[in-house]
């Protein structure tokens, strides 16, 4: 469980109490999840998504809670909407690929991880998983292929935190509706020089 700055949690709580229709529900639900307050996180996320159905970061926050509760099909449904709303949402593609592995839908998992590689060619988890999924038959999958890392570990949480309150940074949650690059570790952010590689990889996505 991650260490959470209580001052930031209190700030989100006050903002949410003042305006329950605010998009602040997303970082508040994420903070509750990281604190282990799963029922509170679920309540806030469900209410927020109902009020902001077209807010992709809210869908991702909700999906992360469902994943913690091992409700993978429900999480996939939320993540599908998130990537439809925000096709370049790296975290949504990663989490969806992990969920498909959990429910053993290998073709769908492969598609998700290939899309992740299209967006971020250097993602080690995606590279490793795509290689295995492409080379192994259904009878040859080993247990570690289906291993579901904690959400924070999958995104390299902690490696990019700096400054006061950094422990409360919410992975790709942006109150304006899309992925927020400043919250994505350098290792998964796209540099302009990778554009050519992205287009080359596009041919392998079908």
Name its key features.
206 residues
Question: Helicity level, as a percent range?
Answer: 55-70%
Order of helices and strands: HHHHHHHHHH
Strand fraction: under 5%
Helix count? 10
In terms of structural class, how would the helical and strand content be classed?
Answer: mainly alpha
Radius of gyration: 17 Å
Please tell me the overall pLDDT: 77
Protein model, in words:
Helix content is 56%, strand content 0%. It is an all-alpha fold and 206 residues long. Helix 2 (25-35) packs parallel to helix 4 (56-68), helix 3 runs antiparallel to helix 4 and helix 4 (56-68) runs antiparallel to helix 5. It is elongated.
Brief summary of the model shown:
The protein is mainly alpha-helical and 206 residues long.
SSE map:
Blueprint: H1 6-18, H2 25-35, H3 38-51, H4 56-68, H5 72-85, H6 90-102, H7 106-119, H8 124-135, H9 151-154, H10 195-202
Helix pairs in contact: 1-2, 2-3, 2-4, 3-4, 4-5, 4-6, 5-6, 6-7, 7-8, 7-10
């Amino acid at each position: 469980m991650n260490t959470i700055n209580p001052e930031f949690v209190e700030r989100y709580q006050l903002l949410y109490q003042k305006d329950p229709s605010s998009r602040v529900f997303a970082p508040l639900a994420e903070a509750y999840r990281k604190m282990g307050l799963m029922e509170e996180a679920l309540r806030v996320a469900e209410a927020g998504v109902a009020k902001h159905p077209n807010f992709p970061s809210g869908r991702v926050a909700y999906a992360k809670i469902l994943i913690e509760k091992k409700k993978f099909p429900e999480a996939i449904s939320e993540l599908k909407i998130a990537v439809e709303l925000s096709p370049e949402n790296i975290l949504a593609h990663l989490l969806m690929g992990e969920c498909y592995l959990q429910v053993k839908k290998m073709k769908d998992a492969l598609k998700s991880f290939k899309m992740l590689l299209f967006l971020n060619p250097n993602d080690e988890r995606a590279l490793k998983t795509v290689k295995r999924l492409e080379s192994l038959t259904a009878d040859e999958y080993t247990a570690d292929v289906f291993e579901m890392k904690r959400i924070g570990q999958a995104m390299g949480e902690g490696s990019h935190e700096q400054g006061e309150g950094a422990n409360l940074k919410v992975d790709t949650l942006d109150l304006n509706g899309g992925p927020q690059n400043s919250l994505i570790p350098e290792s998964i952010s796209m540099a302009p020089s990778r554009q050519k590689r992205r287009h080359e990889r596009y041919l392998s996505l079908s």
